[in-house]
């Protein structure tokens, strides 16, 4: 088995890479380095104690992909490369469609051409949108509240379609909720090049620069007025990919699985928990609501537990504590 890992040097990709190497899988990492740095490869090697095979390239480049498939005899793909900022997606709809939807199409064509029919896909809770009631299971209505979520849903549809072709493509779409935390080694974390307004990226920035972190609205219909989200540790997410490989090998066509903590936390609650655990005071400013945000989003993860035995083991305290190491 040789796994092609796209988005390998990104935040989640690098954690998945470490997890795969530590379990002795053969992995080829690719990334166009638009939102990550090549130095991540050395960190992955230091943590795993294994060589990290990396090729720089773009998932929309079919010539590049066919070279990689031919050279490395790829049997499985874990596809994380994408653009992920919901606000930027509204300003750059075509670019987001091109990477997140056309990129998947190009990748699937390269897989078929190389007789590779197994793929794990990084989807998102954003496919559900504002209509689904939390905790949301995988059968909840999918009605994205923003363009980013729409691109993820369109990519999932491409995977569903592939399951009906001959030979069928088998895929597991992992719908991550809000991924946070750092690797316990302190060597890996979110190293976004593009400025990120995710809560924990803002917390990390505030710790280093003392910039106030933005709370986007405090008059939502939630107990304390701030948005409620499901924060799940990046190492638990990484482990989810290993567990999902087994389902892929059972050859069940398309499956979607939530990866979340199963607990909803408000922005204010997370900030207070962070301050209590780390004894750091965070400067905050309340600003307007963002277009495309929803009030409450947290997961029902029973299906993942039943089908692949996945259970997150890290707590919010583990997530918060990890940011102190990075200072
Ligand atoms: P990230 O930006 O850190 O990683 C994505 C990587 O993909 C980056 O290294 C970037 O350089 C690369 N990339 C982008 N476009 C590319 C292209 N055209 N060709 C090759 N490489 C390309 O983001 P992340 O947080 O690690 O997210 C990984 C995946 O998980 C994405 O698909 C994202 O949509 C999804 N996701 C993330 C979260 C989260 O909370 N971070 C939640 C839900 C889903």
- Low-pLDDT regions: none
The percent range for strand residues is: 15-25%
Largest beta sheet, briefly? 7 strands, parallel
Bound molecules: nicotinamide-adenine-dinucleotide
| Run of helices and strands | EHEHEHEHHEHEEHEEEHEEHEHH
Q: What share of residues is helical? A: 40-55%
Indicate the mean pLDDT: 96
Gross morphology: globular
Total DSSP E strands? 13
Distance between the termini: 38 Å
Helical/strand content category: alpha/beta
Tally of separate helices: 11
Strand order of the largest sheet: 3-2-1-4-5-6-11
Question: What's the layout of helices and strands?
Answer:
Blueprint: E1 2-6, H1 11-22, E2 26-31, H2 40-48, E3 53-56, H3 62-72, E4 76-79, H4 86-91, H5 93-113, E5 118-124, H6 147-162, E6 170-176, E7 178-180, H7 199-209, E8 213-216, E9 228-229, E10 231-233, H8 234-249, E11 254-259, E12 265-266, H9 267-278, E13 284-287, H10 302-308, H11 316-325
Helix pairs in contact: 1-2, 1-8, 3-5, 5-6, 9-11
Bound molecules: nicotinamide-adenine-dinucleotide.
Nicotinamide-adenine-dinucleotide (NAD) is lined by residues 7, 9-13, 31-36, 58-60, 80-84, 99, 103, 122, 124, 176, 178-179, 192.
């Amino acid at each position: 088995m040789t796994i092609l890992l796209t988005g390998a040097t990104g935040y989640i990709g690098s954690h998945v890479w470490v997890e795969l190497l530590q379990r002795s899988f053969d992995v080829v990492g690719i990334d166009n380095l638009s939102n990550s740095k090549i130095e991540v490869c050395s960190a992955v090697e230091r943590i795993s104690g294994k060589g990290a095979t990396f090729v720089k390239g773009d998932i929309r480049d079919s010539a590049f992909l066919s070279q990689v498939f031919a050279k490395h005899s790829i049997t499985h793909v874990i596809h994380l490369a994408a653009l992920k900022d919901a606000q930027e997606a509204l300003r750059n709809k075509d670019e987001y469609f091109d990477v997140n939807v056309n990129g998947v199409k190009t990748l699937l064509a390269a897989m078929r051409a190389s007789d590779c029919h197994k793929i794990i896909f990084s989807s998102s809770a954003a496919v559900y949108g504002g209509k689904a009631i939390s905790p949301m299971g995988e059968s909840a209505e999918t009605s994205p509240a923003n363009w980013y979520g729409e691109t993820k849903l369109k990519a999932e549809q491409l995977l569903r379609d592939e399951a009906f072709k001959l030979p069928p493509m088998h895929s597991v779409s992992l719908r991550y909720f809000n991924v946070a935390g750092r690797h316990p080694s302190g060597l890996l974390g979110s190293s976004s090049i593009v400025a990120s307004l995710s809560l924990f990226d803002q917390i990390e920035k505030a710790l280093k620069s003392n910039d106030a972190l933005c709370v986007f609205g405090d008059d939502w219909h939630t107990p304390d007025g701030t948005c409620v989200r499901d924060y799940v540790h990046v190492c638990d997410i990484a482990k989810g990919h290993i567990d999902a490989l087994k389902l892929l090998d059972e050859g069940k066509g398309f499956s979607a699985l939530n990866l979340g903590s199963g607990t909803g936390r408000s922005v204010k609650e997370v900030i207070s928990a962070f301050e209590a655990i780390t004894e750091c005071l965070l400067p905050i400013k309340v600003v307007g609501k963002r277009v495309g945000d929803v009030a409450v989003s947290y997961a029902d993860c029973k299906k993942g537990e039943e089908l692949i035995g996945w259970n997150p083991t890290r707590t919010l305290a583990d997530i918060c504590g990890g940011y102190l190491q990075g200072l």
